[in-house]
């Protein structure tokens, strides 16, 4: 599969250049979306996204369009005001969007999303799904 080959090539780059290089280069690149891990087990696919600063469902939208998972939201800097001037600004804020292609054997109607301590964890059971045009809004369960 093309996606698997691309992942292998990126992993090779990471090994050759080292993690320090990617950490350094990420400081110069604009924020394109949350960092995401996509894992596949025997019974499910798990997506883990780093999204610190989200406090409620109204700040985060997860949707499915076929086998594409879309994560959108807005990270607000609630502590920033006109009386303070940033001396150093490393944390990302503002709107973000991320799309992830899912395997075709995901049981999309059984998707579950949980948010806790800045991590969004999406669990999708596996089985052969008959329709590739499944479209649904996904609710996120927030844990305090």
Automatic annotation (TrEMBL):
Span of domain SHSP: 27-141
Taxonomy, superkingdom: Bacteria
Cited SUPFAM superfamilies: HSP20-like chaperones
Short name of one Pfam family: HSP20
InterPro entries in the record: A-crystallin/Hsp20_dom (IPR002068), HSP20-like_chaperone (IPR008978), Small_HSP (IPR031107)
Family: Belongs to the small heat shock protein (HSP20) family.
PANTHER family, per the entry: HEAT-SHOCK PROTEIN 20 FAMILY MEMBER (PTHR11527)
Descriptive protein name: Hsp20/alpha crystallin family protein
Organism in which the protein naturally occurs: Terrihalobacillus insolitus
């Amino acid at each position: 599969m093309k996606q698997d080959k691309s992942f292998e090539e990126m992993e090779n780059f990471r090994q050759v250049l080292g993690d320090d290089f990617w950490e350094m280069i990420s400081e110069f690149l604009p924020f394109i979306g949350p960092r995401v891990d996509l894992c596949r087990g025997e019974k499910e696919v798990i997506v883990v996204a780093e999204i610190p600063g989200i406090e409620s469902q109204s700040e985060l939208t997860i949707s499915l369009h076929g086998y594409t998972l879309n994560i959108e939201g807005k990270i607000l800097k609630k502590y920033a005001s006109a009386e303070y001037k940033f001396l150093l600004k490393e944390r990302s804020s503002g709107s973000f969007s991320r799309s992830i292609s899912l395997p075709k054997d995901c049981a999309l109607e059984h998707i579950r999303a949980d948010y806790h301590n800045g991590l969004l964890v999406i669990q999708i059971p596996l089985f052969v799904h008959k329709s590739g045009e499944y479209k649904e809004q996904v609710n996120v369960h927030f844990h305090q």
